[in-house]
Amino acid sequence: MLGHVSVLNFIIHSLIMDSSFFQRLKIFLSIRQQQWQSKEDLEKIQMKKLLETLNSARKTKFYGGALAKFKNNDLLDDLSHFPITSKTDLSAAPEDFLRSSLDKSKLIVETTSGSTGIPKKLFFDSYTTNYRAALLAMIQLEFGRSPFDLYAEVSLKTPPPFPLSSLGLYRKLYLPLLDDEEKTFSTLNEKKPDILAWYPSMLTMMAKINDDNGNPLKLKKAFSGGELLTGPSRKLIEDSFSCQVFNQYAATEVGAIAFECPEEHSFHINSNSALVEIVDDQGNPKEQGVGRIIITSLINQSMPLIRYDIGDLGSWGGECSCGRGLPTLESISGRADDLVVLPSGKVRSARHIIPLDFLDSVKQYQIIQESEDRFTFRYVPAKSSLSQKAQEYFENQIRTGCLGEDIHVDFESVDSIKRGKSGKLRKVISKLTKK
Ligand SMILES: [Zn+2]
Q: For 339-430, CATH number?
């Protein structure tokens, strides 16, 4: 746990950064303390917020009609009777999700392209923006970020420089995500940051370049988020930079959802801002095993989202030994939209075809399912061309992941793999599955 120094520095940070300082500080202190409350107390807080969310949703065009068939108390007892909201619903008519009689000019609008390129328009009120900033600050502190660390973020957006950084506090280094990777690495190696964040595809690439150069760059920590972090990628990053990786699970629609426990590998759900359900394909609750992650956002009362299918898969975790009362997810296993459809019609999660070995033979890769029985393994070779052995392994891994069905894999060597509009690099793209 972090002491008063962090709180004090957070106060200074917020004072300088934003006029909504008191609101952010209040939220920050409250969620920082709430994570240690008992499961029962946290459930009570969550139910109060769910009730508020249901009442807001009743005032929206999208939910108004459907909610009229339900009493609040019945939904508080069991939310799983209410229909699931899909990404398509949201992208089709985003303004239908807005609470009536709102002053839209006061809302912040964000458009996200999404991995399939379907734009989603999202509206946030200032409370939501402040809540998200406070939650992110809390998560980073839980991950052990110190105010004195030089924090490097490779991202699409470059915010203005932070005023206190000249005093050595909250120093940030932003590097353009789309820059040449060797150039990014050389800047990192020159500046020697303590922390590097976020996309695991970028962290992996930096780790590979670091390895090729004899590991001149060591980090205190690496923060991962935004994309699936696989076991081999985590190991590669940790070994290369001699540091621990902390993983965060977030989505533009609802902000930070869960963060990896600093003591264990399970993910703590921030139950004050997100009500998470895990359901089967029919939408029924699943107590065990992997299912679809469904989220009810409890913060943004201007644009409520109830039982929203975020497009990810996960499974419940048990009680964590760290003492936090927040519920846990054991796994968040890849984006459900990265599903592959087999020639037999069966659907498999993309994680089954992701290679776990021979990863040092490629700098980057992307598997594209062109049709039911044809895949393209697109890669940037690490050195010369791909060895026969590696090629056989990748092909086998895809076939095994496809339950041994009759599929064909083409290999395509490229100079680079283009990131999506959001900056994310998708490992698997199926041209057959839609969100
Ligand atoms: Zn824990």
A: 3.30.300
